[in-house]
Amino acid sequence: MTDRKKRRKPGETREKLMESALTLVGKGRHYASLGIREVTRQAGVVPTSFYRNFRNMDDLGLELVDQLGLVLRRMMREARINVVQADERLIEESVDIFIRHVEANRDFFFFMAQGLAGESRAVQDGIRSEMRYFATELANDLRRMGVMSHLGDADLELTCDLVVRTVAFSFTDLLGVSPDDDAQIQQIRDRTTRFLQLIFIGAEHWESGRKAKEGV
Amino acid sequence: MTDRKKRRKPGETREKLMESALTLVGKGRHYASLGIREVTRQAGVVPTSFYRNFRNMDDLGLELVDQLGLVLRRMMREARINVVQADERLIEESVDIFIRHVEANRDFFFFMAQGLAGESRAVQDGIRSEMRYFATELANDLRRMGVMSHLGDADLELTCDLVVRTVAFSFTDLLGVSPDDDAQIQQIRDRTTRFLQLIFIGAEHWESGRKAKEGV
DNA sequence: TCTCTGTGTGTACATTCGTTCACAGAATGT
DNA sequence: ACATTCTGTGAACGAATGTACACACAGAGA
């Protein structure tokens, strides 16, 4: 009651609203079922304030997709720094970084998993676009590291796409378990690692295998 | 206004309600955002009727999961009939059947894709359980056909799990395109086929590859 | 210093929601 | 034939929702 009604910083309420939406999603609510009043309530702000910052919930969702893009880029950067040499630990280290980021940005990845089959087409496309970008960057990195050099560009891109999808699907596993159920998280980590190993082994033998299938 | 208020058949309204929920989902709405009144309105029934048949929307969702199970089993049966010999067309034929069923039961698969990251934990687990069952059956079939006979049970199950996940992720691709955009559907079909080929090639070389990774 | 613009507040209203209740007509078992 | 049970109806409620409007106050530019 002392400092209410003050304007702290430009964009402060805006961030608070986005954060509140994410928090609700993190608590198990689905983004599509969130209402304007609900979000403003969680943010400790009057409903009208919402319209000062967003036109509707879809608008807010698109902003969240942008921020999600930043999170993904941070994750990619860390992976690039820590995983430089292409040895047999490449996959495991990358999965570790992935799991760590999911735990640190739990709500964002909740939102991402929901958005893939969400209500707003725009959000859906946005997330899909982020995944494409991620796959492309992954392909570039692998090229740079000299991994899978026998694959053509299209085939490498195909492989990376499958990798990203597989990892993305692991969200839905990860999100189902409590954040401190280490045993179960370890199990998901192992399983994801094996999935990726399976894919990479397939990619290693891809050309020949593909020719064999197509030749007949 | 002639025959209103008649009770047609037991469970008729019940089916109409489930069908209406699916229809709304098929129109792009997210299941989590559907309300009781909305569903009953779509079904051409008074809101109160809902409670005669379901306790709440989660309850209806669980029934839908059960029906989804039937759809999946039908799909599996057709695949078993039409894909008997394990030749190089196995994957393509299976993907064909899969695509055909998704198109024929569009709304169900919408619901499934949404439910994986949905609001109701019970529905989430139900869908997850259906996927596990599907993967197990797939593993049995492959065993019976003598495919991947060099893999241990655990590794075969791992492979099938990845296959099911990959196919499930293709839903979200398929659902984004118009049902009669044949060119795009064909593209998704091809891409999915290649994903599976990649996985199976990986599985073929799995033991050796795994040992090589683990041995060092 | 003064004005203007941006941002948050409070009030308000029509609409929609979930849920309850008493009632009516068809089906079912005896 | 009759009582019971099952299923759908209509009206009604209190609560929550989206959105509009007028107002208040802080900071930026003159």
UniProtKB/TrEMBL annotation, chains A, B:
Alphabetical keyword list: DNA-binding, Transcription, Transcription regulation
One Pfam family this sequence matches: TetR_C_46
Presence of keyword Amino-acid biosynthesis: no
Transmembrane annotation, as ranges: none
Domain HTH tetR-type: start-end pairs: 11-72
Feature: DNA-binding region: 35-54
GO MF entry, a single one: DNA binding
Keyword Transcription: yes
PANTHER family on file: HTH-TYPE TRANSCRIPTIONAL REPRESSOR FABR
Protein name, per record: TetR family transcriptional regulator
